[in-house]
């Protein structure tokens, strides 16, 4: 395969993004391992469909501001595309395209009938006031109405969005088509057809994988220590679930700063503290000391969980990690240069497309329930989630051992192979 994505780089709108180039590099690595057909590889390198829209919003002070929104559908081969919608200040088309590609592999690993998609609006949600976020969400939904649908593309929450955001999308889409259509989004409120356990699903899936890694490495959960970067939905639930296993969370970071307590941070009291302060931050929590953000990822621990942004583990800090297990709760937290360094250590990597697949898995459960109008209880949701996560973990480890490759390459191989097989079987039209 070529050193760059197919086509003329000068006309490729994605290649300015280092995150997209990272996703392409991973695909090239997989292609060499599984001897992927060159034609299929080139098709997988470029998203099926991408849309950029202007999103004008009347702000609280009366002036109109125009935001830029993106929706990228990497693949529609396996079924409707599936992926989150993020609101982040620096989001761009290439980043969204990379995330959509990773979603395709993630759905492939979990054997879900989806292709990958992702969406984003370049906005800092913390700066939105009053009804601005609702107006932004509804206008964005209207602008991309032509490429979404319950059998076409199904959105879910991501960074900067939540179940209320999904409720606005559900309502806006339903008003347009003329009937209630809860299956247009997942991760919405339970009262509107959401799935019990969906909000906690990604964090629970992360901890299921950590527990399996501990078992394989003969590490006892009781007495183990954890460092978690990110205290949003994924990070906070991961902390809660780790504590239930007897693991001490000794350091946590969020967008505003990092804290540490070697005796273990009381997660219940930290959650209460975060819920009561205006910025919803861990900074200032009186039962822990502040540490520099640069120290967080290199804090000695049993398991390190990056659960925030992409590309936070790089060639500069990979050799300084002092963990036994790296469980990637975020998408793309480790770049290829860092991967090469980690390959020469004893760190057991649970790659992102496996580790954080719990969210899309329970989103699938929610979508199925909405289509059937038959809802499950939380016990059944959690049991099915655990079954699928442990099955995927075993498949990845079997692939890694059989091919004598690392866990990331094994996970990517399984995801890519599923999509590639389906593309080959369907053929190329016309």
TrEMBL record:
Amino acids binding substrate: 82, 106, 363
Record-level GO BP terms: L-glutamate catabolic process
UniProt site positions, description: Important for catalysis: 158
InterPro entries assigned to the protein according to its UniProt record, in alphabetical order: Aminoacid_DH-like_N_sf, Glu/Leu/Phe/Val/Trp_DH, Glu/Leu/Phe/Val/Trp_DH_C, Glu/Leu/Phe/Val/Trp_DH_dimer, Glu/Leu/Phe/Val_DH_AS, Glu_DH, NAD(P)-bd_dom_sf, NAD_bind_Glu_DH
Sample GO molecular function, one term: nucleotide binding
Alphabetic keyword roster: NAD, Nucleotide-binding, Oxidoreductase
Keyword Cytoplasm: no
Keyword check for Nucleotide-binding: yes
Alphabetized Gene3D superfamilies for the sequence: Leucine Dehydrogenase, chain A, domain 1, NAD(P)-binding Rossmann-like Domain
Residues bound to NAD(+): 202, 233
Sequence ranges assigned to domain Glutamate/phenylalanine/leucine/valine/L-tryptophan dehydrogenase C-terminal in this UniProt record: 195-427
Active-site feature positions: 118
Protein origin, superkingdom: Bacteria
Family: Belongs to the Glu/Leu/Phe/Val dehydrogenases family.
Name assigned to this protein: Glutamate dehydrogenase
Lineage, broadest ranks: Bacteria, Pseudomonadati, Planctomycetota, Planctomycetia, Gemmatales
């Amino acid at each position: 395969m070529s050193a760059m994505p197919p086509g003329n780089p000068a006309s490729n709108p994605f290649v300015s993004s280092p995150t997209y180039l990272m996703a392409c590099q991973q695909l090239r690595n997989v292609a060499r391992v599984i001897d992927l057909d060159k034609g299929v590889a080139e098709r997988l390198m470029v998203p099926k469909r991408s849309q950029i829209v202007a999103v004008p919003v009347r702000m609280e002070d009366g002036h109109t501001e125009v935001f830029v929104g993106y929706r990228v559908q990497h693949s529609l081969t396996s079924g409707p595309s599936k992926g989150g919608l993020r609101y982040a200040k620096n989001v761009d088309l290439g980043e969204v395209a990379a995330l959509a590609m990773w979603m395709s592999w993630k759905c492939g690993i979990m054997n879900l009938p989806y292709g990958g998609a992702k969406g984003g609006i370049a906005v800092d949600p913390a700066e939105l006031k009053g009804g601005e976020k609702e107006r932004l969400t509804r206008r964005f939904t209207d602008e991309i109405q032509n490429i979404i649908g319950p059998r076409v593309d199904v959105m879910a929450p991501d960074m900067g969005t939540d179940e209320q955001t999904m409720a606005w999308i559900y309502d806006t889409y339903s008003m347009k088509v003329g009937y209630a259509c809860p299956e247009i989004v997942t991760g919405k409120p339970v009262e509107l057809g959401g799935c019990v356990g969906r909000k906690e699903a990604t964090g629970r899936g992360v901890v299921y994988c950590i527990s399996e890694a501990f078992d394989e490495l003969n590490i006892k959960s009781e007495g183990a220590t954890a460092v978690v970067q990110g205290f949003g939905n994924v990070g906070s639930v991961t902390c809660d679930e780790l504590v239930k296993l007897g693991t001490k969370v000794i350091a946590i970071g969020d967008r505003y700063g990092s804290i540490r307590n070697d005796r273990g941070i009381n997660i219940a009291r930290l959650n209460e503290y975060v819920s009561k302060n205006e910025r919803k931050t861990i900074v200032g929590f009186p039962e822990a000391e502040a540490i520099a953000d640069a120290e967080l990822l290199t804090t000695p621990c049993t398991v390190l969980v990056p659960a925030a942004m992409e590309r936070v583990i790089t060639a500069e800090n990979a050799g300084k990690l002092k963990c036994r297990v790296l469980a990637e709760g975020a998408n793309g937290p480790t770049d290829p240069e860092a991967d090469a360094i980690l390959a020469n250590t004893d760190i057991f990597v649970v790659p992102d497309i496996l580790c954080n697949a719990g969210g899309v898995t329970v989103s699938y459960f929610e979508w199925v329930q909405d289509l059937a109008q038959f809802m499950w209880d939380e016990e059944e949701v959690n049991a099915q989630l655990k079954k699928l996560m442990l099955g995927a973990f075993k498949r990845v480890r079997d692939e890694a051992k059989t091919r004598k490759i690392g866990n990331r390459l094994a996970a990517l191989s399984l995801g890519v192979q599923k999509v590639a097989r389906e593309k080959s079987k369907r053929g190329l039209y016309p």
